[in-house]
Amino acid sequence: MKNKRSNKHKGDSDMFFIFTFIVNNKQEGATRYQQINHVLFLTNIFLLVAFRS
After folding, report:
1. CA dist., res. 22 & res. 2, Å (int)
2. Is the pTM of this model over 0.90?
3. pLDDT tens-digit profile of 2-53?
């Protein structure tokens, strides 16, 4: 149980890092369409991480 919880926490922190990295790189000059695409992409990654067993 503890191991699963720590793995999930690690996945969440990885998600936060990926999100911050993409936002920092793409925020300047990003079009609205690109921003929406990145949100959908991050949502897909989050779902994969959250439900991976």
Report:
1. 30
2. no
3. 545 555 556 567 777 777 776 766 655 567 777 788 888 989 988 888 887 6
Residues 53, 51: Cα–Cα separation, whole Å = 6
Residue at token pair 């999930």: 8
Task: Please give the angle made by the CA atoms of 44, 22 and 50, to the nearest 5 degrees.
Answer: 30
Amino acid letter, residue 47: L
Q: Are the C-beta atoms of residues 15 and 48 closer than 8 Å to each other?
A: no
Look-up of token digits 């793995």: 7
